[in-house]
Amino acid sequence: MKRAIICLDDEKIVLDSLKRELRTFLDDNFIIEVAERGSEGLELVEELTESGYDIPVIISDYVMPEMKGDEFLSIVKKANPKCQTIMLTGQATITGVTNAINSANLYRYISKPWDEEDMQLTIKEAINSYDKDREIERHLCSLEIANEKLLKLDSAKTYFLGLLAHELKTPLIGIYGNAKLIEELTEDEDLIEAAGEILCSEARLRKFSELSLLITRIQMNKYVINFYQEPLWSILEISLFNNKKLIEDKQIKIIQEPIPAEFYVNIDTSLISKVFDIIIDNAIKYSAEKGELNIKANVDGDLCSIKIIDFGKGFEQEDRDYLFDSFASSKDLLTHSEGTGLSMAATKVIMDLHGYKIKAYNCKNAGACVELIFTKSEVDL
Fold first, then answer.
1. Which pLDDT belongs to residue 162?
2. Model confidence over 180-194: pLDDT tens digits?
3. pLDDT at res. 312
């Protein structure tokens, strides 16, 4: 890269001295340009910039014809914010130095006559500072470009998920209707069994479609949330009732700690009910026959923590890393028979929408634990 340092002083002897000293330690990538007036200096900056030169450092005397050094450096700094500016003089007033520091973001003020070693060190450090600033700027630019690409990819992912879910709805209705018709009209046991398998697959695919649409609508701010003040215990009881058949079929023993009746939350009831339904449904599915499901409640001030603990195999480390990701890359999450990846992603999206927290981890001497943390709402009387 072509680089230049500009020196501005109305005394030619000073400019010649600066050029000689700069040339002793600057490499061949640098050219040294000089000017005796502010207007000439501004023309130099413009010409060099248009020619593709990088200008890390500009050195200017304070007492100059036409315009003083602080004014010149201020103009330069506005056009080249990263450029390091050095004011060199023995006649600057406190006001002049202050103006240069404030308006030109002065890197250093050096008095005449200067010390040669100090001058070299100052300019080397100024160049290094400039290079670091440019490197940071390049990294930030790269990060902005990468972030913009990620946002586009995320938007495309969300759109695709919603489109896929929408397109599945109509054929699923036909599949469900025809499978039920087969069950009702035939006595062939093989056909009835096949129809049952079709209905199970349809139910899983319908659940995927519904959750996909829900996640998409929330993430695209198209879900209209309706807040109501509800006692938290009632939402949990409704969810347990919704899963009653599954609990009875596996003969699961529910061990439950009560939630204080006065603990109300401000929620979209249908959404938070879905969170509990999903977590309890998954906990039961991963519990052994005649197993236990512990539901622990702890109130601490305005916070209520509800832990739903099963005694299954728990979460694999790989699963925990991607548990709340809509497109979990864990092989088990995507391929095991029950499927939890998208449903757990939905719980996270819903809890985030309400400003609540959800955690998932393994419990000692137990299996998986999903913890929900709610904030108490003041009840309107």
1. 63
2. 888 888 888 888 888
3. 85
Q: What is the pTM of this model?
A: 0.53
Residue with tokens 């929330």: 218
- Asked if 236 and 363 sit in the same domain, the reply is yes
In SS3 terms, the chain reads as CCEEEEEECCCHHHHHHHHHHHHHHCCCCEEEEEECCHHHHHHHHHHHHHCCCEEEEEEEECCCCCCCHHHHHHHHHHHCCCCEEEEEECCCCHHHHHHHHHHCCCCEEEECCCCHHHHHHHHHHHHHHHHHHHHHHHHHHHHHHHHHHHHHHHHHHHHHHHHHHHHHHHHHHHHHHHHHHHHHHCCCHHHHHHHHHHHHHHHHHHHHHHHHHHHHHHHCCCCCCCCEEEEHHHHHHHHHHHCHHHHHHCCCEEEECCCCCCCEEEECHHHHHHHHHHHHHHHHHCCCCCCEEEEEEEEECCEEEEEEEECCCCCCHHHHHHCCCCCCCCHHHHHCCCCCHHHHHHHHHHHHHHCCEEEEEECCCCCEEEEEEEECCCCCC
Higher pLDDT, 307 or 152: 307
Number of domains in the chain: 3
Give the CATH number for residue 85.
3.40.50.2300
- Cα–Cα dist 232/295, whole Å: 13
- The predicted pLDDT at position 330 comes to 43
Mean pLDDT of 237-248: 92
The average pLDDT across 100-124 equals: 82
Domain that holds residue 330: 228-375
Percent of the chain with pLDDT over 90: 41
Same domain, 200 and 89: no
Q: Which residue type does 46 have?
A: E
Angle 170-176-178 from CA coordinates, rounded to 5° = 105
How are strands ordered across the β-sheet holding 368-375?
253-256, 292-300, 303-310, 368-375, 357-362
Summarised one tens digit per residue, pLDDT across range 52-85 is: 999 999 999 988 888 888 889 989 988 888 899 9
